[in-house]
Amino acid sequence: MDSATYPVNPPLAQINHDTGYEYKNVVQQSEESSEVLVLLAFSGGGTRAASFSYGVLKELAETRINVKGREIRLSDEIDIISSVSGGSFTAAYFGLYGDRIFEDFEEVFLRRDIQGELTSQTLSPSNWSRLASSSFTRADLATELYDDTIFNHATFADMTEAHGPYIVINSTEMTLGTRFQFTQNYANVICTDLSSLPVARAVTASSAVPILFSPITLVNRAGECGWQRPEWMQVALDQNERSSRIYNLASNINALSSHEERPYLHLFDGGLADNLGLRAMLDGVLRHNGIAEAFKALGIEQTRRVVMILVNAETALDVESAHKSNTPSFTASLTAATSVPLTRYSFETVALLKDRLATWERQSYEEVCGTDVRTDDCNGVEFHFIEVNFSEHPDPDERDYLKRQPTSFVLPDEAVDRLIEAGQVILRNNNEYQRIIGGRVVPNGI
Question: What global pTM score does this model have?
């Protein structure tokens, strides 16, 4: 057996784009909903992030819009959710079970002491011999716990058959420092059959915080299933423009395609490469050379409105140390060493996305109308971006409370309640959101 963490990822003998976990095999669109594309990104942040994103889903489920004379729920229009870390629990559960999330997810995950349960299992004598093995780690215990008690042994085949949103669960490949997403397109590169992989395995990798957890290790069987570099990748590598984003993306994926150089992948918390979950969407368009080609590849050329909602559960930096003359503690310094770069990188990612959305909208109008100026008789693609974060809460005291919630997998019920409510309130009060649903514009978020 291959030497990798248990269970070993299943091999793929031959690539088959008609059956794997790909967008076109998951998402089923009606004629009425095909014109609206709703994309969500769930950030990391443990139970805090899972609760906050769950609140946003609740608000979307309670919001109805009129499309071609038919009233539809916005939650039914969600096409893609890209997630990292804590946000991956909510995304994966919704992808598997749809509206059931509003019935039992709070009990199944949000209000449980997951940290305590993991600690109990680690200290249990029945697990000592397994943990003493180099091929079984605390991350494997976490996978078993999530598989047994949250995801009911569901695989990505079950996710495909559920025909909910396309869930892109993101992790970070340790040796490359780059994003690895649990989709069949990525799995094809290392010849892994994602359909047979437990969803819990992907969620564990996405939330495996270094030091607290060992990485999830996958066997790289590149070269065994007939994968070939797609044209966009070959062109980018041949052009060799090393400072370009397309070359960087191509070289990172290409690095996975060599079994000899990288026989194993070691996957950590997805927040290390992208704590917002936005890079999957940016890279998806990048590889297709523009928004029109990306839509064509997904089979959604009829899309005329794109709504992108970022659910950002990022907390405040260490504000307490600013009020003290004492040298910050080791813990505070270590936290700053990791959180400050992530915060700055997240800011740049959001800024890049906003710039790209404006460019994609201009390109759409130029292609459809021959001009980048909107006219009444031109039906280009409109892009709407909404960021739901704690800073947008209308109550300053509540903002402060939310930003002080820790990144952990256990929170008191009061915190869970307030985080869920915050997700609903902040989204509902967003001016852009009100414009989309045809409601009133809320002045200054009040």
Answer: 0.91
